[in-house]
What we know:
Elements: E1 2-3, H1 5-12, H2 16-25, E2 30-32, E3 37-40, H3 45-63, H4 70-74
Antiparallel strand pairs: 1-3, 2-3
Helix pairs in contact: 1-2
Amino acid sequence: MYLTMEETAEYLQFPVAFIENLIQQGKIRALHDGENYLINKEQFNDHLEQLEKYKKQLAEWQAEPLPEDMDIKDED
C-alpha cells in the first residue's frame, strides 16, 4: 500500500517537512509520480516493531521496584 507524504507523516507522527527531508536524503524509499511522492508503507514495519519492543522494555524497567539500600538501615 502506498501513502502520500502527508499520510506518511501522520502514520509515523512526524512533520511533513521531516518526511520530505528523509526522502531527499534517501533514507525513505519513494516513487515520484510527477506531482507527489508515493511511499510504500511496508518499509516501516521493522521500525514500528522495534519501537513497540523498546516501549515494552521501558515500561517493564519503570515498573521494577527500587532495591532497598542497605546503608539506610545502618544510619541513626
